[in-house]
Amino acid sequence: MTQAVWLRNDLRLDDHPALSQAQQHGSIHVLFIATPKQWQQHHESPARLGLKAAALQDIADRLADLGIPFTLLETDWFADVPALLQQFCQQQQVRDLWFQQETPWDENQRDQAVMAALNNVTVHALPHDLLVNLPVKTQSDEPFKVFTPYYRRWLQILEDTQQSPCTEPKTQGAALPKQTLNCHWAGEFRSDLWPGKEAAALNKLSAFCEFKLQDYKKQRDFPGKPATSTLSPYLANGQLGPRRLLAAVQFFCGEQNRDWRHDDWLRELAWRDFYKQLLIHFPRLNKFQPFKPETRYVQWRDDEAGFKAWCEGKTGFPIVDAAMCQLNQTGWMHNRLRMISASFLTKLLFIDWRRGEDYFLDKLIDGDFASNNGGWQWSASTGVDAAPYFRVFNPTLQSERYDPEGQFIKRFVPELANVPAKQIHNPPAELRQQCGYPQPVVDYKQARVDAIAAFKGLPGD
User: Fold this and answer.
1) Could you tell me which of 131, 150, 132 has the C-alpha nearest to residue 142?
2) pTM over 0.85
3) Nearest of 295, 296, 278 to residue 286 by alpha carbon
4) Please, are residues 125 and 111 in contact by the beta-carbon 8 Å criterion?
5) DSSP states of 301-367 as a string?
6) 341 and 242 in contact (C-beta within 8 Å)?
């Protein structure tokens, strides 16, 4: 009787608990279920689906070398999955089904339906694929609503429960013929920046930790410097396991004589866990609702021209436009720029954060629903955040601070390539006209005043 391992957003062989545990109970058969229409409804970008397809092909090839069968199934919607899995289990004489749980609501409902539908199959729903997969709660057994106290408790649990990475599956038999997967739903992605093979992700993790981890805190906010890990596309598809991430941080912090518990990149990984756990504790976040109930009454502006300018990187604010051009051209955006561009859309143009959230997911190769939703609600002051609603990023000051010479701007806004550094953050009107660069679509000072007034007038303020 076969042990079936159902891959989802955990597309790897290294550090995979379901694969490791299933193989201890018998021969395994690995499967993945593509749901193109559901992905489209969830705004999964063509770039992310392209990387997903490349990861699946890599997995299929490596499993074939190990003599482990792999099957790619396809159906339109999550609702179709239980019947499809039931049929697969009957055909393959599956006794046990193994998978790792996911945090979003729709995925959770799909899995509940699977467990209810499968007959004569034991379902092993393993914990969520997080660094800390236990509930992180306060002493009064309530979920944390602010990150800093959450992080302190998260770190305590991590120290107490940390585990070594799971080993890859062992050879199961003679090598099987290689198969070319039919991933017709895959889109184009920057494979030169993010190769689809798991080995590339692991190599990139090691290189980042060895050469950039120590200076991450000092350099991370400067988009013109290659200081961040750029591993987020691999994290979004689960091509790197949480125990492997922790092991890398601990090893290289040890090599650098630093305490891994104080590592700033580890803190960023804790943010990912935080946002994912919020989806579990507060289901409304899965349903396009703000975390702060009073912000449901915000009267967002209907500004199609402003939204179009923002999407196309033609707002007249160089750092915002460079950020949006980076997103549109590569499928990725530097984290500091995500905050700047999201703040611009929600606080200055005063456009509904959900429109920006969807646009990012439509473009991002690392479009993780929990992190994207959390980031947008943080920027819009509708989410879990200790900071008050009157935090409004000044894009010009942000640009001067984090791209002082305009190197990043010049890379993605070629019209400004020859503009002196002192003028590039907010070129004068005549220079804009000469360069063919647009005038600002909004007056920062007035827009800031208007946004603060709109939030201040909400019920319960």
Assistant:
1) 150
2) yes
3) 278
4) yes
5) ---HHHHHHHHHT-SS-HHHHHHHHHHHHHS---HHHHHHHHHIIIIIS---HHHHHHHHHHH-TT-
6) no
Q: How many CA atoms lie within 13 A of 112 on its CB side?
A: 7
Specify the DSSP class assigned to residue 168: P
Catalytic amino acids?
Answer: 268, 271, 300, 335, 353, 376
> Which residues lie closer than 8 Å to 218 by C-beta, 6 or more apart?
none
Strands (E), 44-163: 70-74, 94-100, 122-126
Taking the mean position of all CA atoms in its chain, how far away is CA 73? 25
Strand 94-100 relative to strand 122-126, pairing: parallel
Q: What are the C-alpha distances in Å from 248 to residues 82, 200, 208, 210, 252?
A: 37, 15, 10, 9, 6
The predicted-structure confidence for 201-220, as pLDDT tens digits, reads as follows: 999 999 999 999 999 999 99
The token pair that represents 307 in the structure block: 């939204």
Is residue 220 within 8 Å of residue 264, measured between CB atoms?
yes
Which amino acid, one-letter code, is at 245?
L
User: Which residues of the chain carry a pLDDT beneath 70?
Assistant: 386-388, 460-461
List alpha helices for 2-104, DSSP H.
17-23, 36-41, 46-65, 81-91
Residue 302 has a CB neighbour count (10 Å cut-off) of 9
Q: Strand order of the sheet with strand 2-7?
A: 70-74, 28-34, 2-7, 94-100, 122-126
* Model pLDDT for residues 313-330, shown as the tens digit of each residue: 999 999 999 999 999 999
Tell me the β-bridge partners of 137.
Answer: 143
- Residue-wise pLDDT for 410-459, tens only, equals 999 999 999 999 999 999 999 999 999 999 999 999 999 999 999 987 87
In this structure, the chain runs to a length of 461
Dihedral over alpha carbons 366, 370, 373, 377 (to 10 degrees): -130
d(CA 44, CA 358): 9
Q: Confirm if 222 and 398 have CB atoms less than 8 A apart.
A: no
User: Taking the alpha carbons of 56, 59, 64, 70 in that order, is the dihedral positive or negative?
Assistant: negative
